[in-house]
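pasting input
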Amino acid sequence: MPKKVDHNMRREDLAKAAFRVIARNGLAAATLREVAREANCSAGSLVHYLKSKDKLLLEAAAYSTLVIRGRMLDIEDKYSGVEAIRRVLLAGLPLDENTAGHWKVWFGFWELSEQSPEVKKVLAERYAEALRRYGSLIRDAQEAGEVSADLNIPLLAASLSAFSDGIGVQALRGGMSPAKQKEAVNLWIDNMLRPKAKQASARSK
Amino acid sequence: MPKKVDHNMRREDLAKAAFRVIARNGLAAATLREVAREANCSAGSLVHYLKSKDKLLLEAAAYSTLVIRGRMLDIEDKYSGVEAIRRVLLAGLPLDENTAGHWKVWFGFWELSEQSPEVKKVLAERYAEALRRYGSLIRDAQEAGEVSADLNIPLLAASLSAFSDGIGVQALRGGMSPAKQKEAVNLWIDNMLRPKAKQASARSK
């Protein structure tokens, strides 16, 4: 495996390399050396860009956020109401290896946020974004008349955020299967949002 | 601070010291040196018992499990039906500093389980215990006629486990307040279990 010092190395490539390494084996096992190998650059050159494990995580997470947010925005373009909620929620869950990798990056936030103010700050921003997204999706479903007008949206958005984190943990640490994750999502939506009619699922393509 | 080598040092004291250290600042910040100081013994003497961070976590976790399980068994003695579910769930959530400390130990499991087969094994045992407890509590509420007979108990138990983990994450990492945690628990129970009458809450003392 040839090593080269690439002075034009783009930050984006490094972010992707950091992401791939964390996504494989988690943050604890990720080393700058391994990221350098993944990015096909020298460790010295990498350290110029990523000075610490915090930075490694933050770069990987910035990339991960772009990918997951992109998937969610796509869904919001194509679907509405309860079906949009269901699909956005599923898009964020570790139903396959790829998204499980994103969750390993997310777990890294939980691991480092207690010691790194910068990681804590970015984590807070991501949680605020999730709450806004869930709140806005539930409000849309409400305005479309698909769910009751008297739902407690902030509490449901917070519950949804907790539910999603919990399913992520159960999947990666408790062995919850993709099928069970989907069942749990459907049960949550049916009981917590109580969609008014069957049209919600009929809307999906 | 006097240091002494105490050859009769009991494993339980070390477990408690390990617990207190992790409970304060999390596993990542916990060192054998700090645990030795907490246990008032020499680092060398401690290393004889706790050879690695895995062992440190496992001892702390064994103690934590005894405490939390004890609280839950007490509740199961005193309460029944939906009220027992509510109180057991709340007893496991980080509503105060003390239980937040137990969650920091729990987070340690998530951090180390990917790299340590022993940690992974104990984590799996604890999750299996939680599923059994939740399943049995829901079944009891069902047999008491407090909830519908057609609930999907294994799915609800898995959902409850995920919900609890998610609230723990939101509390410790997302800043969810104790009041909001309680609101989320009540919303979950009301919607997911749909207790049949008001007698559930009237049963509490």
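fyi Chain B touches chain A at residues 25-26, 28-29, 107, 109-115, 123-124, 127, 152, 155-156, 158-159, 161-167, 169-170, 172-176, 180, 183-184, 187-188, 191-192, 194 (CB under 8 Å).
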